[in-house]
Specification:
Length: about 325
């Protein structure tokens, strides 16, 4: 678990470091500070379970086992990237690890996840299902729950008892607008429960608590009892899009960040390890990231002929 947390943290810190050089060819939405949600959710999943991530998806991609080198190459716009250099940061995909393609449009991966959940349900009900009990975890931000399709998806998932875990990464802001200016009521779990879906809020982003709640929810989902919902309160340390900070922009203060720094799950989980084990993991992470960056920098850009491939018209 610490390996995954540290890999995500250090990979994104390196992305923030490289970004001003213009080597990275796409906008980046960093999840520094939010790593615990992705790791806590993905760690209990089976390898054949599916993940649907939002445009702030580096953490979910890596937590589910996505290829680090392919991710960096994608950010560099290289043909060896996971989307062949055509998608960038907001369109990561890794079907070999059952990671659905992400989307830059708020809320759109929720119904896509639902469609996949319906397919998994039919697969599970087959005469001789190969991988019975497969499910999907759908990640989205608090801004996405303001989209109508979110509530349509809750209703359909509950009605059909689909094998989906809804995961809201609630960092308190839709770009620069706080919850207090967007929600008449902050009782999101209560709203979700009206659809007959068990819902739980984790207020402090504790990765071990998230792991435990997801593990419990997976039991019922795999048994065909229908969806579950998790609201994970979290906090992004960087600006909405880009590598910098925005505490002087007038919509939030550095004081608001302080409790989340004190509750940094990367540091807390790392402190549970003995120094030798932690040092070994840290060294492995640094080597992997250095190799991934070198791979991205040495990979070619897509050939001109790629412009007309994988399009509908």
């Amino acid at each position: 678990m610490y390996y995954k947390l540290q890999l995500i943290r250090r990979a994104e810190e390196e992305i923030a470091r490289i970004y001003p050089s213009d080597k990275i060819k796409s906008p980046v939405h960093l999840s520094i500070g939010q790593e615990a949600v992705a790791v806590g959710v993905c760690d209990p999943l089976r390898p054949d379970d599916v993940v649907s991530a939002s445009y702030r998806g580096h953490a979910a991609y890596l937590a589910k086992g996505g290829n680090l080198a392919a991710m960096f190459a994608e950010l560099y716009g290289k043909s060896t990237g996971c989307s062949r250099g055509k998608g960038g940061s907001m369109h990561l995909v890794g079907m070999d690890r059952h990671i659905l393609g992400a989307s830059a449009v708020v809320g759109t991966t929720i119904p896509i996840a639902l469609g996949y959940a319906l397919a998994l349900q039919r697969e599970n009900k087959g005469r001789q299902p190969k991988n019975k009990g497969r499910m999907i975890a759908a990640f989205f931000g608090d801004g996405a729950v303001e989209e109508g399709v979110f509530y349509e998806s809750l209703n359909f998932a509950s009605l059909q008892k689909l094998p989906v875990l809804f995961v809201c990464e609630n960092n308190g802001y839709a770009i620069h607008t706080p919850l207090s200016k967007r929600w008449a009521s902050s009782r999101l779990c209560e709203r979700v429960e009206t659809f007959g879906i068990p819902a739980c809020q984790i207020p402090d982003s504790n990765v071990l608590t998230i792991w435990e709640k997801v593990s419990d929810a997976c039991v019922g989902i795999r048994q065909g009892r229908g969806p579950a919902f998790l609201e994970c309160m979290t906090y992004r340390w960087k600006e909405h899009v880009g590598p910098g900070e925005d505490y002087e922009s007038g919509y939030r203060t550095r004081e608001e960040l302080r409790p989340w720094l004190e509750n940094d799950q990367v540091r807390i989980i790392g402190a549970l390890l003995d120094k030798t084990a932690k040092g070994r993991i840290d060294g492995e992470v640094e080597r992997e990231i250095a190799a991934a960056i070198e791979f991205a920098e040495n990979s070619p850009f897509p050939a001109p002929a790629e412009l007309s491939t994988h399009v509908y018209a």
